[in-house]
Amino acid sequence: MSRPSTLAQLFALDSLLDADEIAIRDTVRDFANARLRPHIGDWFENAELPAREIARELGQIGALGMHLEGYGCPGMSATAYGLACLELEAVDSGIRSLVSVQGSLAMFSIHHWGSEEQKNEWLPRMAAGEAIGCFGLTEPDFGSNPSGMRTNAKRDGDDWLLNGTKMWITNGSIADVAVVWAQTDEGIRGFVVPTDTPGFSAPEIHKKMSLRASVTSELVFDNVRLPGSAMLPKAQGLSGPLTSLGEARFGIIFGAIGAARDCLETAIDYSQSREVFDKPLAGYQITQTKIADMALEVGKGHLLAYHLGRLKDRGEIRPEQISTGKLNNTREAIKIARECRTILGANGITLEYPVIRHANNLESVLTYEGTSEVHQLTIGRALTGEAAFR
Ligand SMILES: Cc1cc2nc3c(=O)[nH]c(=O)nc-3n(C[C@H](O)[C@H](O)[C@H](O)COP(=O)(O)OP(=O)(O)OC[C@H]3O[C@@H](n4cnc5c(N)ncnc54)[C@H](O)[C@@H]3O)c2cc1C
């Protein structure tokens, strides 16, 4: 038998990256495999992520706010950031979520929409992983349609008074700072809210069967008094949070395919050692058909991610292209995770292998940062010129 190729060799994926990108990818991969992979099954099972510790270590390898310039941020390319997301999600979507929310949602919002004072106060500490951020957009009654949000900020002299509730907020109860979107007399505006402000609380959401190695919380604002300077001066209306979401969705295009790769590598490996009916499972045509079909999707998912990375690095990417990548790669990843689970048989349902964990995590990834249906509607609008959201 000839020596088997890796998935990367099948598509000659490294030929599409430069030496710096490969070095960054390998640094994150080595960190993820050495520091995170040995513990992830337990963190998932016990729903306990040592997020502060991990955030500091991620800060040390330059994975937080990776594609942002200045203020202590690493200033790397969008493609390099995507590759880091891919390697982190190959371990667990919860870890990639920590990085996405920190870098793409909270830090990007402050970096892109904030005042100099806000940037200097928060970004260096967030890049180092010494301060954790969250991003509060979704509410109990408004997920896909955040324009209906009820959280509101009212002027009170020079201050703002913030009231309302946010739901499903990643990093919520461990955050030092929350970027919160609220209705005001001037429309939707963003606020930088230190989480030790009186009236702020963040009860953690329990009983999740997905993203268990990730903190998810409610945010409650009960007359939270903020100075006038807490508002993000440059974000006006829903385009503020939607632009930030585009950044995080971009990371998911890469991340989801990392989870798929990990499932497929696990399934190939398993099929080579598991004997059924007196020979390795890998030697059956049905298994090879499954593996070949999944490899095509993992490879195409990488190619799409790399292409969109290049477009983003040239400043040319459009929202419907991000939707295309997020929809395709997440949807294919969850199909691959489920198919790989069949190859592992009963072993596929345990946390001894990563496959069921990835499959469960990808249920959240399919829903957050725009559900599949919302991305279908975005692509449909781009192609037909008709908006069908209502
Ligand atoms: C683990 C996890 C972490 C999260 N982290 C964050 C976070 O950090 N910050 C944050 O703000 N939010 C976060 N979210 C929330 C997430 O963004 C929302 O769950 C998502 O936007 C969907 O909203 P919803 O759950 O209210 O579903 P709904 O909007 O109620 O959607 C329910 C169903 O209706 C479909 N639907 C909606 N509109 C249409 C339409 N026009 N046409 C056809 N079908 C439609 C949806 O696609 C979906 O299938 C997180 C969610 C999860 C699960």
TrEMBL record:
Domain Acyl-CoA oxidase/dehydrogenase middle: 134-224
Keywords noted in UniProt: FAD, Flavoprotein, Oxidoreductase, Transit peptide
CC cofactor: FAD
Record has Nucleus as a keyword: no
Catalytic reaction(s) noted: a 2,3-saturated acyl-CoA + A = a 2,3-dehydroacyl-CoA + AH2
Domain Acyl-CoA dehydrogenase/oxidase C-terminal, residue spans: 236-383
Domain Acyl-CoA dehydrogenase/oxidase N-terminal: 20-130
GO biological process terms on file: fatty acid beta-oxidation using acyl-CoA dehydrogenase; fatty-acyl-CoA biosynthetic process
One MF annotation (Gene Ontology) recorded for this entry: fatty-acyl-CoA binding
UniProt family annotation: Belongs to the acyl-CoA dehydrogenase family.
Protein name: Glutaryl-CoA dehydrogenase
Gene that encodes the chain: gcdH
